[in-house]
Amino acid sequence: MADAFAPIRAALARPGRPSSDYDLNPGIALPEGRQLRAAGVLVAFEERPEGLSLLLTKRASHLRHHPGQIAFPGGKVDPEDADPIAAALREAREEVALDPANVEVLGVMEPHETVTSYVVTPVLARIRAPFRPIPEAGEVAEVFSVPLRHVTDPARYSIEGRRWLGTTRRYYTVPFGPYYIWGATARILRSLADRMT
């Protein structure tokens, strides 16, 4: 029986490079002496009859940071977390009720630096068995899935821009239906697409 996750395993075996929110904005000066905080996000795929699908969340609209944005389950590395992988698994349990025992970690991609001074490790994973996501009402407005073939097709990506700190900041987008996937989430997915093409 064919391994549906073989393309992801193969992508992880290829060399990659770190990414950042500044990739498309070489003119933006990074703050001197900035302190980066470690974080981990779970880039989790589930096997379905129509193919692999990616689990994503829509952040609650009342949150102080990134309200209403599309994100991976995940967050900063807390003192009790051994590493970004542990943080990603813990946050996925808290945010969408995904039991870490139902997750097979496939590997990690190079870190992504955000404009909010986080260095984010994308943790690629397989959801072993079907589960019913339960959004954590304080943080997550919605949980949804996107086909792997959508986010790994470079033709689905575009570069857009908006004013930020007095200049135009450019970023990747990869919209899916009503969901506007952009910023760090889209940049991490674009890194995966680059590895798989």
State the helical fraction. 10-25%
SSE-based structural type: alpha+beta
Which regions contain 5 or more consecutive residues with pLDDT less than 50? Answer: none
How many alpha or pi helices? 4
Overall number of strands: 11
Question: What does this protein look like?
Answer:
The model has no long low-confidence stretch (mean pLDDT 91). The chain has 4 helices and 11 strands, in the order H-E-E-E-E-E-H-E-E-E-E-H-E-E-H. The strands form 2 sheets. Strands 1, 2, 3, 4, 5, 6, 7, 8 and 9 form a 9-stranded mixed beta sheet that branches. A two-stranded antiparallel sheet has the order 10-11. By secondary structure, it is α+β, with helices and mostly antiparallel strands. 20% of the residues lie in helices and 35% in strands. The protein has helices spanning 6-13, 84-96, 148-151, 183-196; strands spanning 19-20, 37-48, 51-59, 70-71, 74-76, 103-108, 112-113, 118-127, 140-147, 158-164, 167-173. It has a domain at 35-151: Alpha-Beta Complex (Nucleoside Triphosphate Pyrophosphohydrolase). The longest helix is centred in the C-terminal third of the chain and has 14 residues, at 183-196. The chain starts with 5 loop residues before the first helix and ends with a helix. Strand 7 (112-113) and strand 8 form a beta hairpin.
